[in-house]
Amino acid sequence: MTTNKYDSIYQELAKKIDQGIVKAEDILPSENELSLQYETSRETVRKALNLLAQNGYIQKIRGKGSVVLNVEKMRFPVSGLVSFKELSKTLGRRTCTKVHEFGLIHPDPYLCKQLKAEPDDEIWRIIRSREINGEHVILDKDYIYRKCVPMLTQEICENSIYEYIEDELGMKIGFAQKEFVVEACTDEDEKYLDRNGFDHIVVVRNFVFLEDATLFQYTESRHRLDKFRFVDFARRGR
């Protein structure tokens, strides 16, 4: 069986990345340099690079080139419902939470739709960045019904809101509905995250319910795309 030239280039470069010969954050040679190295056309090289990008090995960044991603990304569970504090214990990395904005608001039409709220409802708005190994790589935008959580403080938000709700208020958090999308970075991402040149971000939208099925929280959790992989376990039912 014959192998396409672009596929053999892809396999060779992917193997070098997997083995650590080419390391995360390295810049691959340009298309011109690779075409000379492999004695092939730029179009063939471009196909190989596109395949590397599709499989999570590189990210093409304007002005930089093809940046090698960390293939040992931090694992974030898709189906679990855990706080960042709980998740931090499994990451094996230095973590810190910084609260940038905190207070009560009345919901705009977008939040009214997401939370099924009324315009005169009071909503806690918390904007937090999550620092991992010295880099701010997650931006969490939390919106919580005050009627469900009457009191919050910045100190609680810096520690764990879920721990406070369950241990101090004695409420039980039941389940969440999640939506995953990739979006262009916003001004807030630019302001609060270390983007490292990336112009897109992975957004996880969470609709979180108490055990009695009351919707009490809407969250947009914005992750720098080179730092995480989202994992799940699925069992086939018959």
UniProtKB/TrEMBL annotation:
Signal peptide: none annotated. InterPro entries: Bact_HTH_transcr_reg, Chorismate_lyase_/UTRA_dom_sf, TreR, Tscrpt_reg_HTH_GntR, UTRA, WH-like_DNA-bd_sf, WH_DNA-bd_sf. Residues 3-71 form the HTH gntR-type domain. One of its GO terms (biological process) is negative regulation of DNA-templated transcription. One of its GO terms (molecular function) is DNA binding. Keywords: DNA-binding, Repressor, Transcription, Transcription regulation. It comes from the Bacteria. It holds the Pfam family UTRA. The keyword Kinase does not apply. PANTHER family: HTH-TYPE TRANSCRIPTIONAL REGULATOR TRER, MANNOSYL-D-GLYCERATE TRANSPORT/METABOLISM SYSTEM REPRESSOR MNGR-RELATED. This is Trehalose operon repressor. It comes from Bacillus gobiensis. The lineage of its organism: Bacteria, Bacillati, Bacillota, Bacilli, Bacillales.
